[in-house]
Amino acid sequence: MDAWVVDQPGPIDNHPLLRLQRDDPVPGPGQVRVKISCCGVCRTDLHLAEGDLPPKRPRVTPGHEVVGVVDAVGADARRFMIGDRVGVAWLGKTDGSCRFCRQGRENLCLHPTFTGWDVDGGYAAACLVDESFAYRLPDGLADETAAPLLCAGIIGYRALQRAAVPDGGRLGIYGFGGSAHLTAQIALAQGLRVHVLTRGEPNQALARELGVDSVGGPSDPPPEPLDGAILFAPAGELVPVALRALDRGGTLAMAGIWSSDIPTLNYDETLFQERQLVSVTANTRDDGETFLALAARLGVRATTVPYPMADANRALIDLKHGRFGGAAVLHV
């Protein structure tokens, strides 16, 4: 089968992904093989390709917003049947026995496996997944619009929970790509006031189309103090900016797996008066199930830009340079 791999991590404009032929993967015990229809393009894939996230093994295939159908099952795999449509997300497996797994906080597992980082992901014709970590997808949701929900949507939902905005409160969103535009829809449906602070006309235009309460640049002050904020941009220099925009008792959640360095914080200006800075680390399967059900009920839809799977490097280049709003999706 055709598959993309991270050959030599480096600047995305130098095309660090290499396309090659691999043997079809064979599912082991408890695994299913997914014949891939499409795979969303996540900023984490860009961090992996450029080396911000060092590959866990040589020539790993990226991609963790996978939609496809089961076409083979391993021994003892009984949850899905051949032909079932499934989604494969970032959290690929946990040990199930560490202190965090026993507490129901599997996103903090001490020995996790991540799709497209530890094991081969969705920039290919097929991939394997532990059946207990695959998702059944809601009916009536097209493959292309389902793909970004599997990471961008789930992580955005967890970040919104971490930001702890009270009912009817004021949410700031810094950066407005694939994850943020889905999170904004949830927040608006829940009755929050949403202020988007982002660069790039495509992203600003998409925010306006979704009906947010205001749109400004990433360093602009919002029109009112924020009860909570989410930083989606991997830009540590925006942390003090966002903290200063919080009202007393507000929380800033950092949603990315990687960020540039955070500048020195002035305690009085950014943290005093019980402002909080928290991070988001992966997600639990319960987060995923809850978000997918909520997205189906509220009619959350991803704004997508399709690319052929053969153009994976170009999709990541366009993501890097902010050439589209919403989320890119690769089609096999």
Q: What does it look like?
A:
With 332 residues, this protein is α/β, with parallel strands linked by helices. Helices cover 25% and strands 26% of the residues. It contains 10 helices and 17 strands. The strands form 4 sheets. Strands 3, 4, 5, 8, 9, 16 and 17 form a 7-stranded mixed beta sheet that branches. The protein has a 6-stranded parallel beta sheet with strand order 12-11-10-13-14-15, with helices on both faces. A two-stranded antiparallel sheet has the order 1-2. It is globular.
Highlighted features:
332 residues, alpha/beta, seven-stranded mixed sheet, six-stranded parallel sheet, globular
SSE arrangement:
Layout lengths: L1 E5 L10 E5 L9 E10 L2 H8 L15 E8 L11 E4 L2 E3 L5 H4 L10 E2 L11 E5 L3 E3 L6 H4 L5 H12 L6 E5 L3 H12 L3 E5 L3 H9 L4 E3 L9 E6 L6 H7 L1 E9 L12 H4 L5 E4 L5 H14 L5 E5 L3 H9 L6 E5 L1
Helix pairs in contact: 4-5, 4-9
The portion of residues assigned to helices is 25-40%
Largest sheet: 7 strands, mixed
What portion of the residues fall into strands of 2 or more residues? 25-35%
Which regions are unreliable across 5 or more consecutive residues at pLDDT < 50? none
H/E series: EEEHEEEHEEEHHEHEHEEHEHEHEHE
What's the number of helices?
Answer: 10
How much is the radius of gyration in Å?
Answer: 19 Å
What distance lies between the first and last C-alpha atoms, to the nearest angstrom? 11 Å
SS-based class = alpha/beta
> What would you call the shape?
globular
Number of strands: 17
Question: What integer is the average pLDDT?
Answer: 97
